[in-house]
Structure formats: C-alpha cells, structure tokens
Amino acid sequence: MSSEIDGYKVNDETEWSPALITTPPLFSWPLRPFLILKYLFGYPGYFLPRNICYMALALVTWFFLTPNLESMETFNVEWVSVIYFRNLAFMFLVFGGWHFRFYILKAQGKRFSFNKRSPQAKHRRFLFGDQVYDNMLYSVLGGCTIWTTYEVITMWAFANNLIPFLDWDTSPIWFIILFLVIPLFRDAHFYVVHRILHIRFLYKHVHALHHKNVDIGPWSGLAMHPFEHLLYFSGILVHWLVLSHPIHAILHVQATGLTPALGHLGFDKYLFAEKKPLTLGQRYFHYLHHKYFECNYGGDGTVPMDKWFGSFHDGSEESNKLILERRKKARIGA
Ligand SMILES: [Zn+2]
Ligand SMILES: [Zn+2]
Fold first, then answer.
1. How far is the CA of 127 from the centre of ligand 1 (A)?
2. Residue 294, SS3?
3. What is the reported pTM?
4. What would the pLDDT profile of 198-228 be if each residue is shown by its tens digit?
5. In the chain, what is the straight-line distance between the N-terminal and C-terminal CA atoms, in Å?
6. Phi, psi of 231 (to 5 degrees)
C-alpha cells in the first residue's frame, strides 16, 4: 500500500528509497560561495538540524552539568560520578528517546524507513538472543564507560594545566572558530578510524560486532567492541595537543557519544503530525555502509573522504556496480 505525503511517494509496507546522496560543497573545487553559504546556514545543512543542537548542549553541559575545574584537580568518586551519570542520562534520553518514538510507539509506522525489517531481531548471534538488549549492553558498559574515561582524564589534565589551555579572553576568535570546526574534524577522524577497522584482522576480531546490525536502529550506533570504542572516542586526544578549552573537548566527546543514535536511526525523515516530513540530515549515508559494507566509511560525508578515496556510495545502481566490481577484484587479488 502506498500513499502520498507532502508530494513524497511513501510506501507504507517496505523500505523507503530516498533521493541520491549529494556531496556537501565545502571542499568542492572551484569554490561556489553561494552553495557554501546555503549549506552552512540552510536546512538541512552544516549546523541544522544536528550540529547546532550538539553545540547548544555542550554549552549547557559545561556551564551547568560539569563540576568546576578546581574540584577536578584530583580524581575522586564524587565528580567522576557526576560526569558518568550525566553521560548515561544523555545516552538514555537520546538513544532511548529515538528508539521509543520510532520502534516502540512506532509513531510513523514504516514510513520513511530504510530498513527491510525492524532492528529488533531475535537471533542467536545477539546476546540474550535480542538485538536491542545486545546493543544496549555494549553501548552502556563499553560506550558510556570509555566516553567518560576519556572525558574525565581530559578534564583532569585541563584542571592541572598539563595540556594547552585556551582562555576566551586571550583569543575569542580562535575560540569560536575551533568550536565551529569540531564537526569537520570528527567526520574526518571517523573516516580514518573506520577505514582501519575494516582491515581484515580488525574487522573479524573487533568491528564485526558492530556489523551484526544489518537493519539498524538508534541503539545499534554505539554497539561496538570496547577496542572500537577506544579508537572511536580517541578524537578527543587532539585537545591534548591543540590549544583549546574544556568546552571544546566536551563538545567533541559528547557529540561523538550521541551522534550514532541519529546516524543509525533507520529513518530518513521525521513525520510531524502526519503531514510535514522533516528531514533529519544525511541519514542514508551510513545506512548504506551497513547494507554494503565497503563504502561510506565517513560519518555523514561532511568531509568527502569517501569521494576522494573512491568508496563513496550515493545510493545509485552505478555505485552498486562499482562496489560489486571492487569486491570481485579484491577476491581475485586475495
Ligand atoms: Zn554503524
Ligand atoms: Zn563498518
């Protein structure tokens, strides 16, 4: 059965076929200033809808939900627990919130869903025979713990002036620029780490755990082997070298922790009040990685490294053919 919502043809029963993925214009040559401005400030774009939320959340987190720096000079259970339980609460709010809305309430059924099946499989490849419980366990025990460990050590290092500390008063311009470019760094870092995780040995022993999720849902996002968590959150280490402020590190690690929920949503659009489909940014990009494996290693392609290194899949038949050809060649070469 199919229906039409706001000009979109929607199949209520099967997966949704979204428009082909286009590459953001930031790194295209020749530079096209109008397109860049539209991408930066338009919807969907660089800031909207996702990064602006992470930036606002980082500000709230630093000013209201982080112990003061002096108290973090020495490790103690009190302030470490504040950070751990704050992260855990955000995790349940964001991952649990999306899951609840799309897969428990089923608020928009399968409309705008990429998945063929619901990402709530019962299968013996999952712990407890249940995809969601398996994913939650790895996210909470490994994901939240390693996220918090990186954050705690970094805050402690800032508190003790062991790493370069950027003051707002000395360089407000650099302060703002750094804050605004962190999503770019995150995307490029994820591409590199993810590409490494697809090296045969690491894939087999580490990353295959994440790829147990063929049909994806929010809790698939941080369902990783702890070694993958270690690599995945390691981007925060850049703040040990580059002049920055704790607020930059918080934005960096918090967005890294929360992004996978939306990245693995399994839906392209948020159907608001049964009328207006609201785009959620480039959700198809990583879905295709789970479907075809050897493509789209970046987070959402903000920095088009997949395009530069030949692994970009835009969702077209041509991209499918290229992937299959590459697979064949790899098998012959092996
Ligand atoms: Zn994934
Ligand atoms: Zn992968």
1. 18
2. coil
3. 0.93
4. 999 999 999 999 999 999 999 999 999 999 9
5. 45
6. -70, -40
